[in-house]
Predict the 3D structure of the following.
Amino acid sequence: MRLGILFSGGKDSTLALNYAAEKEEVACLITLISQNKESYMFHTPNIDVTTLQAEALGFPQITKITQGEKEKELLDLEDAIAQAAKKYLIEGVVTGAIESVYQAERIQRICYRLGLWCFNPLWKHDQKALLEQLLEKKFNVIISGIFAYPLDEKWLGKQIDTKIIDKLIELQQKYGISPSGEGGEIETTVLDAPMFQNKIEIQDYKIEARGNSGVLHIKQAKLVSK
């Protein structure tokens, strides 16, 4: 089956892509670029880096800008998926949703209207196990956004490793945060993964943070040999 991957450049969509490619044919990546940093549907930190990631992966990419207005942004998503169906003949769509019923239900409705299958390969998986899979599969993932107490600026730019996973689990137990960031607590950017033909090297960045909210903005990056 030919699949389109809803791709944000974060760990979940990249891991979902990895799962999908093991069993089916990945035809393209589909990326929504939201102008609203508070978008209910779409990852926003470093979304422009998906262009480099798509190049590293060797997949064509459909990108569409959306104003990110609640519910209205779904029309833009539907249009992008319809473009993928027409241009790349996809038969299904893959998401990186883990627990967000809001996102999963809306994407499923869009796929139903377009006559496409919808796959959520990470759905309801144990969050700690998913984070550990990133290490097992040798993903290089950095935390590029923090949006919850008690996270602070010190977390930005940290590579997800065993110590970070343990700390996230500790914060889950103490404060109830989602260790995978499914509740919007953290956002991530993937710099390398098994399917990347080249890895991403950050050359310049800027951190904007205040209290328990902040983003590491990648200002310049390039592909380098692995």
User: Anything to note?
Assistant: The chain has two domains: 2-119, 127-224.
